[in-house]
Structures are given as C-alpha cells and as structure tokens.
Amino acid sequence: MRQSLTAILLFIILFGTTAPAAEPGPADVVKAFNSAITERKLDAALAHFASGSVQYTLRAAHAGVPTGDAGITSDLKAHWSMIGPVVIGATASYKRVPEILDSRVDGDLATVWAQTSSESVDRNGKVQQSKFSEVYLLVKTAGGWQIGAMADNRGTSAFAGAPIEPAGSR
Q: Facing residues of 46 across strands?
C-alpha cells in the first residue's frame, strides 16, 4: 500500500505538472508586439501582423511627418516598416508599455484595449513621454493570434530627427 501511494505521488509530481504550453492569447500578442518595438526588433514586431492588416491614423503622431492623402487607413506592415527605422534611428531608446484595459475574444476575432505609455530618448538625451489609448483587432490564423488592425487616439508631438514637411505640402 505504501509503495502504491509513493508511486502515485511520484507520478503526480513528475507528470501532473507538465501541462501543454498554452498558445499566446490576444493580449499576449499585443504585449509581445510592443516589447519587440521596445527591444528595437522590427522584424519580430512585424511578424505579429496578419496579412492585409490595417493601420488607422487619425492624425500624425509626430509634427512634420505627413499622414498622406489616402484617408485614415493604410497598410499596417508598411506603416511600421516606414516609421520603425525612423524611430529607431532617431532615438537612443524608445519604450512602449501597454497596460491592457480589456480583452475580448469572440470566435476567431478579438479586441484588445490598451493604455499605452511611451518614452523616447533622442540622441541628444532629451526625453519625451506620451500616454494614449490603443485598440487592436486580432484575428485567429493557423499560426495563432495576429494583429489585424490598430488605431489610437495619440496626439501630435514634436519628434527630434523626424523629417520636416515643407509648408503647404498637405
């Protein structure tokens, strides 16, 4: 009896705690995307985007950076492929930290609302901080959750190193 009890306890200890790893949920993907940006790993950040994903831009995030005339939507991967190198090149560090406010899953769609804090330190040591709301629409793909759309209510701020848009070009 004692040997059976010992064998059962040993089995539970060895095999009972090895549950299969859960796949990252929508909020985990949002955190991973922002972490990759903070770590300056643009390719890792872009890997979180679904094919055909959309960026909603209500206003330019940085003064002097044109938003274009095509409306408020653009290709999300192209958007971050353009601004990522500018942000990385113009800053000594750029940190994005999302505080997840709400995350909802409905089948193969999910929404994640975040209050995102950002801090950039330009090459001259000037620190800029910002806080804004972001909403992410995620889609379930064969590879797991991916970001299908992003929108934020970020206001326009000065950004050292950003190109200056010539007067009247908008």
A: none
pTM: 0.76
**What's the count of helices (H) and strands (E) in the chain, helices before strands?**
4, 6
Task: Write the pLDDT tens digit of every residue in 64-73.
Answer: 555 556 668 8
Confidence band of 154 (pLDDT split at 50, 70, 90): confident
Exposure string over 78-97, b if 16+ CB within 10 A, otherwise e: ebbeebbeebeebbeebbbe
Q: What is the pLDDT of residue 72?
A: 82
**Side chain identity, residue 81:** S
From the list 71, 59, 66, 121, the residue with the least C-alpha distance to 94 is 121
| CB neighbour class for 24 (10 Å; exposed up to 12, middle 13-18, buried from 19) | middle
* Burial track 105-123 (b if 16+ CB lie within 10 A, e otherwise): eeeeebebbbebebbbebe
Dig out the tokens for 141 from the structure.
């793909």
Architecture of domain 23-152 in this structure: Roll (3.10)
DSSP 3-state percent helix, strand, coil across the chain (nearest 5): 30, 40, 35
Q: Are 150 and 55 in contact (CB under 8 A)?
A: yes
